[in-house]
Automatic annotation (TrEMBL):
Keywords: Transferase. This is Sulfotransferase family protein. Pfam families: Sulfotransfer_3. It comes from the Bacteria. Its EC number is 2.8.2.-. PANTHER family: OMEGA-HYDROXY-BETA-DIHYDROMENAQUINONE-9 SULFOTRANSFERASE STF3 (PTHR36451:SF1), PAPS-DEPENDENT SULFOTRANSFERASE STF3 (PTHR36451). InterPro entries: P-loop_NTPase, Stf3_sulfotransferase. The keyword Transferase applies.
Length: 297
């Protein structure tokens, strides 16, 4: 594969703090088949050696029968082929990754320091860049002729590194009221720790710590955002996007100069008509009221 593959068909990268609407935006755009978003199988099994293909097909069926119909933290439907963030793939490839904080919550601060700010390990940035480039090349081979579409809140602090890897990448940023985001992020963190921790129970995420972390991530994003040329970036607000996502998606295509077929917009509309009810405020509130998952001490 030529080294300038990302110049020929620049990827679209969605950033924004956790619980800001990145998943809704990702799935709406991914309904356009000219995009290629990594699936759950892609991120769980990021190695794409030929001898693993049959095993991955079998794994897809097994996961489909075992996995819950919705995500642990909310009512958003998920399948083995649902678009997923690449952070899990980076974790499985051995790169610094925020996903590791769910597995080892007692080391959460050190893990996030290394994965999001490349502090604490001298080779953290190099290992992350190598793993990300490797995974993107796998996606490009697997989905030839399609533009790679990623969403990853962790990438909100990595814009300079993403630009170094993919200088012509297009960026979509989504922001949401911190008063809504911070408590939702707290709950997401605590539920993920209960579900995935390999260290037993960890203390809940303190609200003040969540506020400080939100402020630090957003400060880094604000500082780095102007480094992207204006024609390659667009910002949306969750509060205006969520009530009318089709209109919001139209504006994103126009702002970034992306072409879209009539069929692609029809697919996006069908997606929203089918899945939009799970994004309604009552549905999300009901999901957040569920009791926490049990975890053996």
């Amino acid at each position: 594969m030529p080294d300038d593959w990302s110049v020929t068909l620049p990827p679209v990268l969605i950033v924004g703090f956790w619980r800001s609407g990145t998943t809704l935006l990702h799935e709406m755009l991914a309904a356009d088949r000219s995009f290629a978003a990594p699936s759950l199988i892609d991120v769980l099994c990021p190695a794409d050696a030929p001898y693993l293909r049959k095993a991955k097909l079998s794994l897809t069926g097994a996961i489909a029968t075992l996995m819950p119909a919705t995500r642990v933290v909310d009512s958003v439907a998920v399948t083995p082929r649902s678009p997923q963030e690449e952070e899990a793939a980076l974790c499985h490839l051995g790169a610094p990754s925020s996903f590791a904080a769910a597995y080892f919550p007692k080391r959460r601060e050190a893990i996030l320091e290394e994965a999001l700010f490349f502090d604490g390990a001298p080779d953290a940035r190099e290992r992350w860049r190598a793993a990300h480039d490797h995974f993107m090349r796998l996606l490009t081979v697997k989905y030839p002729g399609r533009r790679i579409l990623l969403k990853n809140p962790s990438n909100s602090t990595r814009i300079p590194d993403l630009l170094a890897l993919y200088p012509r990448a297009l960026f979509v940023r989504i922001d949401r009221d911190p008063a809504e985001v911070v408590p939702s992020f707290q709950r997401m963190t605590d539920v993920a720790n209960e579900a995935f921790s390999l260290q037993g129970r960890a203390p809940p995420l303190d609200r003040e710590a969540a506020i400080r972390f939100h402020a630090r991530v957003m400060a880094k994003l604000d500082a780095d955002w102007p480094k992207i040329t204006p024609e390659r970036r667009v910002e949306v607000r969750y509060e205006t996007f969520a009530p009318s996502p089709l209109r919001g998606v139209d504006a994103i295509y126009e702002s970034l100069g992306l072409e879209r077929s009539v069929e692609a917009r029809r697919r996006q509309k069908r997606f929203w008509l089918r899945r939009g009810r799970t994004w309604s405020p009552p549905a999300i509130a009901a999901a957040q009221a569920r009791p926490s998952l049990p975890l053996s001490p």
